[in-house]
């Protein structure tokens, strides 16, 4: 067998788990390359080496150039690469996932597809954000009303604590600078938070778009999870930075998010919260965090799952001598063109199993005409 050139990718089980990785690294106006198993970041000040397997998400801002070798290394290490706009106010795309099982994705899709379970998860999210509030039995309208009141109080509380004036949340996604200092700091901090949460969600194999509270957006679930931490992380950080009168609140916000996540072991918390929302207590024990080599399986209905890569046919090979061609006039073809369809003449009785009444009637009529069997 011919040897495949290049470095062999590491097995999935040897990679660093997502909750044990660094949070995120933001770069701009630099060249990202590869040196052995490290990502190199080079700008006018020099070169920095970053272990790719220990990185959760690499945020590439304007002026960032990344090489093919660096992307290959990030993909092999299952590190998420995110392309963002200037100052991190836009999000464009992301890279590969650490997950190999779809267990969490299936649980997420099942929960979000039922109104009853969707509201149940939404209540749990609000209970996590506001521990002293009772959410049992509340409708979504009531939950949204309570959220608005609690968030407004959180802003007012931070304004009073820091002495920073607060006139309400106001920002434009198309014009970052058209806002006051505290709103710019909030936007920058929230964007960095979205990037890290998005990386965790993708790494766990969940869908960023299947949200329980937010909806009809490709990052709905990202916003759902990020909202769990804003009152504790981004809101006080933004007011602190404005009170300190830092030269550039956007840069300081990104650094502040990095420092607070590092101290609070944010990734572990985020992974734990996502899993606890989507899995029952029994499933949490049955589905370990450690990455396993899971072979693709086939769904076999009520009997569960079967191993892939096998032929489950119990029928002998078909005898081609019984196959005949039946001309069927296609309504979509021009000039009444005929289409030849191969049918086994020994299986006519099973034709009705397809359940297409129109096609069945056309077939029966064609059969009677061919045999001259009109009464």
From TrEMBL:
In terms of superkingdom, the source organism counts as Bacteria
Give the EC number(s) listed in the UniProt record: 3.1.-.-
Tell me the keywords, alphabetical order. Antiviral defense, DNA-binding, Endonuclease, Hydrolase, Magnesium, Manganese, Metal-binding, Nuclease
Cofactor(s) required, per the database record: Mg(2+); Mn(2+)
One GO molecular function term of this record is: DNA binding
The first-level EC class reads: hydrolase
Q: Where does Mn(2+) bind?
A: 147, 214, 227
**Which family does the record assign?**
Belongs to the CRISPR-associated endonuclease Cas1 family.
Q: How does it assemble?
A: Homodimer, forms a heterotetramer with a Cas2 homodimer.
- Primary role: CRISPR (clustered regularly interspaced short palindromic repeat), is an adaptive immune system that provides protection against mobile genetic elements (viruses, transposable elements and conjugative plasmids). CRISPR clusters contain spacers, sequences complementary to antecedent mobile elements, and target invading nucleic acids. CRISPR clusters are transcribed and processed into CRISPR RNA (crRNA). Acts as a dsDNA endonuclease. Involved in the integration of spacer DNA into the CRISPR cassette.
Q: What name has this protein been given in UniProt?
A: CRISPR-associated endonuclease Cas1
Q: Which organism is it from?
A: Bifidobacterium callimiconis
